[in-house]
Amino acid sequence: MAVSVGIVGATGAVGQELIRLLHERNFPFSSLKVLASGRSAGKEIRYKDETFIIEEATPESFDRMDIALFSAGATITKTLAPEAAKRGCVVVDNSSAFRMDPDVPLVVPEINPEAVRDHKGIIANPNCSTAIALMGLAPLHQAFGLKRFVACTYQAVSGSGVAGMQELENQIKAWSEGKDCPPETYPHPIAFNLFPHVDVFFDDGYTKEEHKMLNESRKIMSMPDLPATTTCVRVPVMRAHSIAIHAEFEQPVSLEAAREAIAAFSGAELCDDTANNVYPTPLQFSGKNKCGVGRIRIDSALDNGLAFFVVGDQLLKGAALNAVQIAEEVVRLQA
Amino acid sequence: MAVSVGIVGATGAVGQELIRLLHERNFPFSSLKVLASGRSAGKEIRYKDETFIIEEATPESFDRMDIALFSAGATITKTLAPEAAKRGCVVVDNSSAFRMDPDVPLVVPEINPEAVRDHKGIIANPNCSTAIALMGLAPLHQAFGLKRFVACTYQAVSGSGVAGMQELENQIKAWSEGKDCPPETYPHPIAFNLFPHVDVFFDDGYTKEEHKMLNESRKIMSMPDLPATTTCVRVPVMRAHSIAIHAEFEQPVSLEAAREAIAAFSGAELCDDTANNVYPTPLQFSGKNKCGVGRIRIDSALDNGLAFFVVGDQLLKGAALNAVQIAEEVVRLQA
């Protein structure tokens, strides 16, 4: 089956990765339309020898399109994704617009691929920190039954798109030249700094990012009442997120079984040999499809506790890769 | 009372801060000897208009010295500190050599100043992450009775001394010039990176830094059985540590009472107004004596839970300031 595919938000950091992944993974597309806002219409995007001319995304863009990969803001997505779905196009959406909608499956193909079957035209791709954290949490849940978790994140600037990466780069260069470079994208300088502030604050003192991580983890693992808490922090790292997790399980845990569960899980790479300074780091996992899981240890402060550290590329498993994997499931089901 | 004071390890990053703080806080010293290894003997250290000639630290250096502030490696400290104590000199030691020795008080003056009385010549200054985390944990413990905590750290390179700060600076400059700068101080690059590896690994999979934080917190708060767990992470920040804490308390918590407890605690600055993007960050708290505490929120995943974020200068409250505060207690008791 050859499918016609569109990318909405093709000019962004995730959009660029989508184009690359569709090619590299030999996604069976018959045509590839790249769409963006009217502002970018007419501009060119190059991938290897190919040139794509950006078209403005309108409802009619989705006529006769099979699958649309959305990586746009929540506002434009809320308007256009239903228009695409109405036209029979399956939307895989990277925004937060529909993730918690009970009619929209939220899918990580290594965890709940079966949820793809239930779509009504829109399938949501999870928040980046969530998808990456789950590459450690989900296999351990399968092994021991997750009871509660505490997660603290170390999130790369790519989570704020090209603007975030540019801001870190500009501030670092300015510092090297002894110049000043005040923040524009972020509320505070990010070079040589960090802040516990990703996305907007809610009345309960948590950020929207923190809510996403907790609620989306519960939805993806079908554990609506899972007690969980997190602090999400932006750090001066380019494109891989790290997450320190301390988790409690229903059943007794063992290091050996934990390592086996991680090693057997297709989305994870066991990266855990402290005697040789082996544990995942953001630089190592930038550009990698798999997420690294290491520093696995018995956490005796918790009941059946395990502590571990997960690192994954924010633009790949945290966004574009997971979206393409969902699209691959859609194709498999229609085959 | 005027006291003769010595600094052991005067050439290090902490040593420099000790000299500055003794002057700025008008510490009542009659003389100030600066000591270091034989390698540095004869070199000069300048503070404003004064010049100090470094002497080699030997057992005899401590004859007729009242207080010695040690900021040297554990090996040299294990030899020289007892020699100093034998000569009647009170040692305030910043290394980990004696911290868990039951005969040595481990003191944070805002928390357990009374422990200074029990010294037998040596008083230990806590690990940097511990002292900073406690600026949030201790007042909340006093308010609600701490039951358990999970802490994840974001630790600055100053924790590795001048060498760590230099390595981050060199790697950032090299990156800006498109050059390579392989790691020397750390096992991995630190620019644009981070790693869950501070100090050596133990057989249980935790690092020595993680053990320090847990064991020292228990000793300082006199809670030997406190369940607690931590992941310690080095980040590309110069000199302030951040710690995300999720804690459980014996008594019901309230946001208002938590904020009051923090605001009333002399070592902390309440820095918690998310509506205006106010929360502590490392750049803001570099060079500050107080530690910032913010992002305080009810943590419903834990029993009587609170989550919060603490930031403090690693060289000040994390090392030199706390040591000078201990020395001030010693002087007060002898007055």
Describe the structure.
The structure is a homodimer of 335-residue chains. The first copy, chain A, is α/β, with parallel strands linked by helices. Chain A has 2 domains: 3-126 and 319-334, NAD(P)-binding Rossmann-like Domain (Rossmann fold), CATH 3.40.50.720; 130-314, 2-Layer Sandwich (Dihydrodipicolinate Reductase, domain 2). In chain A, helix 1 (13-24) packs across helix 8 (316-334), helix 3 (128-144) crosses helix 6 (255-264) and helix 3 packs across helix 8. Chain A has helices at residues 13-24, 74-86, 128-144, 161-176, 208-220, 255-264, 282-285, 316-334; strands at 3-8, 29-36, 44-47, 50-53, 55-56, 67-70, 90-93, 122-124, 146-154, 228-231, 240-249, 268-270, 291-299, 305-313. Chain A contains 8 helices and 14 strands. The longest helix of chain A has 19 residues, at 316-334. In chain A, strand 13 and strand 14 form a beta hairpin. In chain A, the strands form 3 sheets. Chain A has a 6-stranded parallel β-sheet with strand order 5-2-1-6-7-8, with helices on both faces. The first copy, chain A, has a 6-stranded mixed β-sheet with strand order 10-9-11-14-13-12. The mean pLDDT of chain A is 97. The termini of chain A are close together. Chain A is 31% helix and 24% strand. At the A-B interface, strand 9, helix 4, strand 10, strand 11 and helix 7 of A face strand 9, helix 4, strand 10, strand 11 and helix 7 of B.
